[in-house]
Amino acid sequence: MIDAINASLFTPIGEDGLIGIYLILNGLKVTLIVTFFAMIMGSILGVTTTLMKMSPKWYLRWPANLYVSVIRGTPVVVQLVILYFIVLAAFDVDKITAAIIAFGLNSGAYISEIIRAGIQAVDKGQMEAARSLGLSHGATMKEVILPQAIKNILPSLGNEFIVLLKETAVIGFIGGVDLMRAGEIIRSRTFEDSVPLFTCALIYLLLTYSFTLLLSKFETRLKQSD
Amino acid sequence: MIKINNLHKSFGDNQVLKGIDEQINHGEVVSVIGPSGSGKSTFLRCINLLEQPTQGDILIDGQSITAPDACIDKLRQKVGMVFQNFNLFPHKTVKQNITLAPVQLKLMTPKEADVEAEALLEQVGLKDKADAYPSSLSGGQKQRVAIARALAMKPELMLFDEPTSALDPEMVGDVLDVMKSLAHKGMTMVIVTHEMGFARDVSDRVIFMDGGVIVENSEPEALFSAPKEARTQAFLSKVLR
């Protein structure tokens, strides 16, 4: 067991002198960078898409609906590969940037659905009460609907973050070396299966679990103001 | 002050209002009674355009509110509405519920609105609840806050949509008392209600609706003691026992 750990993580695993644990840590860095920036891009896209979907103008609603349908209806790995090898092929875009764009596009669709659901979960009497006082639609959204919707949105948004983090494990499909691909490289070079794979799994688990803890703490605080 | 001509409202194939003609004068208190599904709430909600009429016209102070260029937000500032389910804003305190609209619409400074809110809370008997959140109030207290919130806009007309239907019986009296004192102060009010005693005591006029039309429309004494229409008689014999 200790030998296996040493062999796959702490001794050079090829003629280039590569050491497993460095590969893993670099992979982890890629995973975190892609997740973080994809989440930011996804949030911006998500808000924009929600606004477009709720617009009375069909030429705003229509593309937003198409975008969400296409993204939700196809696997993220297919989107990633198409984006990198076809859409971005003509541009000089590195793999990490391509991954950020692909996962950001993917996440944006889901986040827009989360925001929409959060807004729709606010009792419709709230809109009626505010409008009947003479407040405009915009002022009602800002003062009455969104502050309540945010309580529905934040927990799901945290969940989306966890899903996104795990989904980035397919970056290897375009040749990017994320956490998962790092494990695979070690596995193929050392013929040692358990140590690299369980190391990856453990790191994913630690990341998502600590984030879940943080999230539930946050949710308890949100509930206190009720 | 309100004139309603040939008002129709359908939801899809379901025709709820089938031609309502009605006029409500300044300072008048009108109760609307009738069986559920008779269209009385829809009628009330059309008056401040929470429901868009399918046909017909509503004039407030001579201005058509259904005209395409009518400014709905301005109109609604003049028309207060109280809902069956209160619809207080749960993330705001009682006082913030009351001051939100006048401050947002720049009718009052935050300070003026604060003073006004306190006066209104005193009027509805809830001065000590100014900084409480709605979730800590009873139903009757919530409804009195909702009335204060509507009054903060200094409306010319108040609409009440079954204001006591969601209340525990012992809470009903407090809310009705507040409404009664409003009526005595000369507020123009349209009240959809199941409180027959209240309708009889406070209203200047009672409208009985059934099947999307006004069946009978007269002074409360006449309508309750000597209803002319068979449908009115049948309804009253059921609710008055």
Automatic annotation (TrEMBL), chain A:
The chain crosses the membrane at residues 30-52, 64-87, 195-215. One of its GO terms (cellular component) is ATP-binding cassette (ABC) transporter complex. Its main location: membrane. PROSITE patterns: ABC_TM1. Residues 28-215 form the ABC transmembrane type-1 domain. Keywords: Amino-acid transport, Cell membrane, Membrane, Transmembrane, Transmembrane helix, Transport. One of its GO terms (molecular function) is transmembrane transporter activity. Part of the binding-protein-dependent transport system for glutamine; probably responsible for the translocation of the substrate across the membrane. This is Putative glutamine transport system permease protein GlnP. It comes from Shewanella atlantica.
From TrEMBL, chain B:
Residues 2-236 form the ABC transporter domain. InterPro entries: AAA+_ATPase, ABC_ATPase_HisP-typ, ABC_transporter-like_ATP-bd, ABC_transporter-like_CS, MetN_ABC_transporter-like, P-loop_NTPase. GO terms for cellular component: plasma membrane. Keywords: Amino-acid transport, ATP-binding, Cell membrane, Membrane, Nucleotide-binding, Transport. Belongs to the ABC transporter superfamily. PANTHER family: AMINO ACID IMPORT ATP-BINDING PROTEIN (PTHR43166), GLUTAMATE_ASPARTATE IMPORT ATP-BINDING PROTEIN GLTL (PTHR43166:SF9). This is Amino acid ABC transporter ATP-binding protein. It comes from Shewanella atlantica.
